[in-house]
Amino acid sequence: MTFKLDDYLPYQLSTTSNAVSDVIAGEYKSRFGLKIPEWRVMSVLGTRGASTQRHLVEATLMDKVTVNRAVKNLVDRTLLDRSPNTADGRSHHLLLSSTGRDLYGQILPAAQAMDKKIMSVLSVEEKAELSAMLVRIKKSADAIAAE
């Protein structure tokens, strides 16, 4: 049996994700001083509102240490506000500060422009098909993980 790494879906997804993330990371780092994990945290908070670190780990699928480091950097830069979680004394509620919302408002158009540029190789129909396929693949992986 011959195994072709370049045809192996997990490898294709990983290398594609890394290539896209590297392009985006360069943009976010040079223009906004953010690393990818920091942007992911900001984007979750910007679209979903206040959250705990535990929820951020679940929403981003990043490990706890990476989320913790990103949150600390964002709090240090006054881009996030942190308040005690009265329901659970071990965690905090996190949300974008006024400064964080302003930066998010600047980054969002740049993120959308970069997405458009990267995805320009696909037709509207192909983009929709790819998105639907990725949703199905993720659901399948989640179901297998839950077994």
Features:
147 residues, two-stranded antiparallel ribbon, 2 strands, 70% helix
- The succession of helices and strands, N to C, reads HHHHEEHH
**Count, helices:** 6
Radius of gyration: 18 Å
**What's the count of strands?**
2
- Low-confidence stretches at least 5 residues in length (pLDDT < 50)? none
* Structural class assignment: mainly alpha
Q: What is the overall silhouette?
A: globular
What oligomeric arrangement do these chains adopt? single chain
Mean pLDDT: 92
Beta fraction: 5-15%
Task: State the share of residues found in helices, binned by percent.
Answer: over 70%
Strand order of the largest sheet: 1-2
Distance between the termini: 29 Å
Summarize the main sheet. 2 strands, antiparallel
Produce the secondary structure layout.
Elements: H1 9-32, H2 36-48, H3 53-60, H4 64-76, E1 80-84, E2 92-96, H5 98-119, H6 124-146
Antiparallel strand pairs: 1-2
Brief account:
The chain has 147 residues and is mainly α. Helix content is 70%, strand content 7%. Strands 1-2 form a two-stranded antiparallel ribbon.
Structure explained in plain terms:
70% of the residues lie in helices and 7% in strands. It contains 6 helices and 2 strands. The radius of gyration is 18 Å and the shape is globular. By secondary structure, the protein is mainly alpha-helical. Strand 1 and strand 2 form a beta hairpin. Strands 1-2 form a two-stranded antiparallel sheet. Helix 2 packs across helix 4 and helix 3 crosses helix 4. The mean pLDDT is 92. The longest helix has 24 residues.
